[in-house]
Design goal:
The complex is a heterodimer.
Chain A lengths: L1 H11 L7 H26 L9 H60 L10
Chain B lengths: L2 H15 L3 H23 L2 H18 L6 H22 L8 H6 L9 H11 L4 H11 L5 H8 L3 H23 L4
Helix pairs in contact in B: 1-2, 2-3, 2-4, 3-4, 4-7, 4-8, 6-9, 7-8, 7-9, 8-9
The chains are: A mainly alpha, B mainly alpha.
Chain lengths: 124, 183
């Protein structure tokens, strides 16, 4: 039963020729494509910084570019961080100096106000 | 293919590989029937089929250096055509089947003993899902064996056999229902 169907299928599905015009259309499209392909090939072979622009080199230069950019960004961030740390340290130092100065001032005043009687060096 | 013909085909391929445009034209001429027919029966639309077949030959022109023999060329063309057609059908499932009158006009020059039956079969094949349709066409139109079909469509051999079995059963059932197809 399948043999009959298979035979009919083979007959029904026999190939058809698209005609001579088809060949000409294909060749015309190939001819159209060739200058574009040649231009692509020229671009493909163009060198950057003296290196041939083969896919490997292209990937390598792209990776190098990304790594350099990331490195510069990290360095910039690190610099900002260090500047902020320095500013904070300076602020803390000023604060400490201020507190110390105030304390010294208080202590000095306390010492002056007490003026013990036995402090002969201070009496005139 | 006789030995002389095979040698001549290999020579044409070598000349095309060397960049001779006329030789590439001969390659197109030799294979356009298979490529166009496969595209036509897959897409059921003549202009879409011509466009797809042209794209396949353009791709061949770009990939010619990877073709090692005429047998490889034949396999490569069928594989690329079937896969491109499946992709196109999945992308644009709305591609309409051609009217029967146009299908008649497309019938080959050989005399058909049962044009009605052939027409019905082509219409039913056109209703199959893309992958089973490609399997059926590569088997019965291009005479490829299941192993080659499996390689061409990146399917397992069991899937190919299952598609063939189910598609034949479906076709037989529909033929019996519609026209009393009998053995």
């Amino acid at each position: 039963m399948n043999d009959e169907l298979e035979k009919s299928l083979r007959f029904a599905l026999r190939p058809v020729d698209p005609g001579e015009k088809f060949t000409q259309s294909v060749l015309a499209r190939v001819a159209e494509e060739q200058p574009a392909a040649a231009a692509r090939q020229r671009d493909h072979g163009r060198s950057y910084f003296g290196l041939p622009a083969r896919p490997t080199f292209r990937w390598a230069s792209a990776t190098l570019g990304i790594v350099l950019t990331a490195g510069l960004f990290a360095a910039h961030q690190w610099r900002i961080h260090r500047t902020q740390q320095g500013l904070e340290a300076r602020r803390q130092l000023f604060q400490a100096l201020q507190v110390t100065g105030e304390n010294l001032d208080i202590a000095y005043r306390m010492v002056n106000n007490q003026e013990p009687a036995g402090n002969f060096s201070r009496t005139r | 293919m006789s030995e002389t013909n095979a040698d001549a085909s290999e020579e044409v391929l070598s000349r095309a590989l060397a960049g001779e445009v006329a030789a590439f034209g001969l390659l197109v001429r030799q294979h356009q029937r298979a490529v166009f027919s496969l595209a036509l029966r897959m897409l059921s639309d003549r202009s879409q089929a011509e466009d797809l077949a042209q794209e396949v030959f353009l791709q061949l022109h770009k990939s010619l250096a990877s073709i090692s023999s005429t047998a490889h060329l034949g396999f490569w063309l069928r594989k690329v055509t079937a896969n491109r057609a499946i992709d196109r059908l999945r992308r644009e499932p709305k591609i309409e089947a051609v009217p029967l009158e146009e299908a008649d006009a497309m019938a080959s020059e050989t005399l058909d003993p049962d044009p009605l039956l052939s027409r019905q079969l082509r219409a039913l094949v056109g209703q199959l899902a893309p992958a089973p349709r490609a399997v059926l066409l590569l088997r019965y139109q291009e005479d490829m064996d299941p192993t080659q079909i499996a390689r061409a469509l990146s399917l397992s051999i069991n899937t190919v056999k299952s598609h063939l079995k189910r598609s034949l059963a479906q076709l037989r059932k529909q033929m019996e229902q519609s026209a009393g197809f009998s053995t």
